[in-house]
Amino acid sequence: HLSAPSLWGIPLKYFSLVTLAVQNSTLTIIMHYSRVSTPSSQRYSAATAVLMNEVMKGLISLIIAFSRLDSGHAPMYDMTQAAGSRGRVTRLRRLWRDVFSPDCWKLSIPAILYVIQNNLQYVAATNLEAATFQVTYQMKILTTAAFSVMLLRKKLSSTQWVSLLFLALGVGIVQIQAGANNGAAVDAANHLLDPLRGFMAVTAACFTSGLAGVYFEMVLKGSQADLWVRNVQLSLFSLLPALAPIILSYRGQESNGVGSFLSLLFRNFGVWAWATVAVQVLGGLLTALVIKYSDNILKGFATSLSIVISFLSSVALFNFHMTFTFLLGSAVVLVATWLYNAQPKRTAYFPISRPCD
Ligand code: C5P
């Protein structure tokens, strides 16, 4: 067991949870604003944002993984290798070996799922109001639970099952509000948002979130590999699926060459697009920390707290009209989240087979 690590005297566990809550709501708002504040013809490419997210997250994780080898933190690190003049080269070789380990392919599955999820998130944020998106996205607790039961053989209490039903009910109530608000929600060019499209995107994102999260947990807990090395592997496997839609859209262009490719890639990619990417990178790193230093149960708390923050910000920033149905649905979602999390930690972890050797 690790001793409790801390940052500026705050245990990393609480630091990552509170920061994740703030990050979650900031991302929802910034992403929504960055998409609807310009007419659709002047929007930046969501595919580029997803790619940049993976590149930056991968680089940061690589630096952290390397520095952990430097200080001998990585599991099973042979300290004698760190000594001597060839220490740095040895460490780089060691890092290379870790990243391209025989089991690295296992990360390809969550990597593809997360790329799909991150793209769907943009579709949802473009077509749903920030607060509606935030609440509906809570359905991922439902999918995470289902996949945990199926793949990790987690045991859920009857209270937890009931709370999951309430969660679905609450999301349903919020959707009534989203439908009723249909005519009111518009983007910068006065185009109507498309709540049905947004809802379908968020539902699909909940499935990929649940499956990817559980799969990542399975790979992480089934081996000794360092979390940051796993993150590098995750980002590496994300590059190809993240690049695919960009290359496909570039094939249709008449001009070619690196210059025109880059200008297509970063067309309309302004300050708000970079801000969205930066907040998303932070979220990815925090998610990794939360998985490592606390657990998915506490992660649920963090995201439910972010609902409240998003609500209040949406009302203040986007003139969001809070109706009784919206409040009722959100309250049901919050209570259901609390009920689900208020269980004693007796959930067992029994992998069906050892995922990693
Ligand atoms: O909402 P959810 O928890 O499913 O979101 C996970 C997010 O964190 C995704 O955007 C995913 O790309 C990112 N992530 C990450 N590194 C991990 C796990 C998740 O960047 N190890």
From TrEMBL:
Keywords: Membrane, Transmembrane, Transmembrane helix. The chain crosses the membrane at residues 161-178, 198-220, 232-251, 271-291, 298-318, 324-342. It comes from the Eukaryota. It is found in: Membrane. Its main location: membrane. This is UDP-galactose transporter. It is a multi-pass membrane protein. GO terms for molecular function: pyrimidine nucleotide-sugar transmembrane transporter activity. One of its GO terms (cellular component) is Golgi membrane.
